[in-house]
């Protein structure tokens, strides 16, 4: 039986992909690196250091590891500054309603994000109170597609993977959910999250009613 829900943050609760893009773009411009929205898509759900390594490889740049970490920190400073502008208006449409329904029906709710800034983003949105547990980029060392972050979140909720539904917008995130034995809801296009148990184009469509209808046998 489903007792809990675990949410990715960026691209599920709010669309911070744009702020991540702008911050990487600023760094790339300073470095004279090629960086566009297409490469940015490959960073969805990927940790900060893995992201800079993807950008580095794309540009065939030769940069020592310690300098790479400094550059990632610089990008994070740009990103952090942009988070100040996030408010409770910035939930993706449908997300706040879903979180409210889950609380009303007594489901356990956790965050399972790769971001080390997750607590700050939740705070800006005013969303912290919806979550019984927070798993973020500081909680585990192996990032998605490893299932570790969702296993961590489920343990914090006191639930088994098969008792939890994971909402994810990243290909690596759906891989992680499936590797851990979770029920996976994909948010986004077929080519990105078509391997989820069920896929919706947007959070607005991924209502509790729809998810309950799909996993009907798993809800009492
Ligand atoms: C994920 C984003 O949620 O978090 C990635 O989809 C991002 O784009 C990753 O790189 C890590 O975020 P942060 O805030 O720790 O740099
Ligand atoms: Mg995401």
Q: Assembly state here?
A: single chain
**What's the number of structural domains?**
2
Tell me, what is the CATH class of the largest domain? Alpha Beta
Distance between the termini: 7 Å
Spans where pLDDT lies below 50 across 5 or more residues:
none
CATH architecture of the largest domain: 3-Layer(aba) Sandwich
Rg, nearest Å: 17 Å
Order of helices and strands: EHHHHHEHEHEHEHEH
The distinct ligands, each listed once, are: 6-O-phosphono-beta-D-glucopyranose, magnesium ion
SSE blueprint and pairings:
Blueprint: E1 4-7, H1 17-31, H2 37-41, H3 48-59, H4 65-83, H5 95-104, E2 108-112, H6 118-125, E3 133-135, H7 148-157, E4 164-168, H8 171-179, E5 183-187, H9 190-193, E6 198-200, H10 208-214
Parallel strand pairs: 1-2, 1-4, 2-3, 4-5, 5-6
Helix pairs in contact: 1-4, 3-4
The protein binds 6-O-phosphono-beta-D-glucopyranose (BG6) and magnesium ion (MG).
6-O-phosphono-beta-D-glucopyranose binds next to helix 3.
Notes on the structure:
The chain has 220 residues and is α/β, with parallel strands linked by helices. It folds into 2 domains: 4-15 and 88-218, Rossmann fold (3-Layer(aba) Sandwich); 17-83, Putative phosphatase, domain 2 (DNA polymerase, domain 1). It is 45% helix and 11% strand. It has helices at residues 17-31, 37-41, 48-59, 65-83, 95-104, 118-125, 148-157, 171-179, 190-193, 208-214, and strands at 4-7, 108-112, 133-135, 164-168, 183-187, 198-200. Helix 1 (17-31) crosses helix 4 (65-83) and helix 3 (48-59) packs across helix 4 (65-83). The chain is globular. The N and C termini lie close together (7 Å). Magnesium ion binds next to loops.
